[in-house]
Amino acid sequence: MGRACRIFAILCWLAATSAWAAEVQDVRLWRAPDHTRVVFDLSGPAEHKLITLDNPSRIVLDISDVRLKASLSGLKLDDTPIGKIRSGIREGSDLRVVFDMSAGVKPRSFALKANAQAGDRLVLDLYDLTAATVSQPPPVTKKVDAGGRRDLIVAIDAGHGGEDPGALGPNRLREKDVVLAISKELYALFEREPGFKPTLIRGGDYYVSLKGRRDLARQRQADLFVSIHADAFTRPQANGASVYALSTKGATSTAAQYLAQRENAADLIGGVNLSDKDDVLAGVLADLSMTSTLDTSLKMGGSVLGRMDSIARLHKRSVEQAGFAVLKSPDIPSILVETGFISNPAEARRLATRSYQQQMARAIHAGIRDWFSQHPPAGTLLAWQKQQGGQQYTIARGDTLSDIAQRFNVSITDLKSANGMSDTRILVGQTLKIPTS
Ligand SMILES: [Zn+2]
User: What is its EC number (predicted)?
Assistant: First the structure.
């Protein structure tokens, strides 16, 4: 190569690399019930500045020394307060992204450092000022009947979501989708059952911080928190379902400890602002109330495990314990259900089917119901039913005896004999005694 060529090559190289410190490789957008999240995937760390402008309302994001390689035009803005997104270059090498807003928001931005699962990211959260523009479950209040008996509130937490896909299985199966489907089935089961009021902690594809999940459960006055997950392991042979509770000391096994570490890393992947960071103090866990809460969690977990035994191979036969951040509510019994290994090809195939998701939801539902019907908190409909000598069910239009038997996990024969029935004919409005299964 001649000297001139060499100089030319160096100039080209300089032009290609030195102008920008990093690149925006992808831009992703998630809509949550109360905010819109825009994530910029960067090839390296970058400084940024957030500016809010009025008339017309705009949010401006200036990112120093980066080049936009991704496209902004494919982002789905339906249901968001963003009208349009534009970009331009500022001061030679800075990127300016302008969000033309159609509704007022409170913006917040923060950078996330690269970690084992994800690269450097810049997160822009736009919090809605007005009522949510997407459908979200109505606020849950403890429903009280004429006799002053209230419903039990079950907080159902589908793990991961949004930017955090959770464990990944064959054929692009993602934990966040599987567990949301199971959670919705579980919600439907509790919704149909008198004495229970379910609430979904995550109702769609967006991320909620681990602390945010606990906060929502407390706000909704949950009597129980159940977090739904699907496991993954480096060995594809690993399989089976398991149930976990919090440990205030060490983990009960290295596998449980490993799992808790992985689940706790969700905030790093899902993207959590400093203000959402977990502030549960070790002292809270030493609290006396925690001891009894934990005792209930362990027993209820055992009850769920017992029901899962009939539909799945159990990975562990007893409830395991580790320091799961999402289970650290001092006053709400909390369990985490690993519904199976998404990394196991056969189990992943099953977990992807609606029928298995329903079976799994039925087992979890039955396990929780078993526990509460034996140990109902005072003042609940279930406590009253227990006093009366068992559960009752009033037949609604469209019910069949086999539906009811399945819902309460009792056999049709037992149901018939408990009610002195000779056939399976039922009448709308008729009240059936549900035998204890
Ligand atoms: Zn998980």
Answer: 3.5.1.28
**Confidence at residue 217, expressed as pLDDT on a 0 to 100 scale:** 95
CA of 354 to the centre of ligand 1 (A): 19
What CATH number matches the domain at 390-434, 3.10.350.10, 3.50.30.30, 3.30.70.1060, 2.60.40.2380? 3.10.350.10
Q: Which residues of the chain have pLDDT under 50?
A: 1, 14-15, 132-135, 281-282
Distance 351 CA to ligand 1 centre (A): 14
**Distance from residue 213's CA to the centre of ligand 1 (Å):** 14
Class of CATH domain 16-128: mainly beta
Ligand 1 center to 160 CA (angstroms): 6
**Beta carbons within 10 angstroms of residue 428's beta carbon:** 10
User: What pLDDT, on a 0 to 100 scale, did the predictor assign at position 1?
Assistant: 46
Distance 285 CA to ligand 1 centre (A): 23
State whether the Cα torsion 112-172-337-218 is positive or negative.
Answer: positive
- Spacing, Cα 60 to ligand 1 middle (Å): 35
pLDDT digits (tens, 9 = 90+) for 293-330: 999 999 999 999 999 988 888 888 899 999 999 998 88
Using DSSP's 3-state secondary structure scheme, residue 343 falls into coil
Ligand 1 mean position, distance from CA 230 (Å): 6
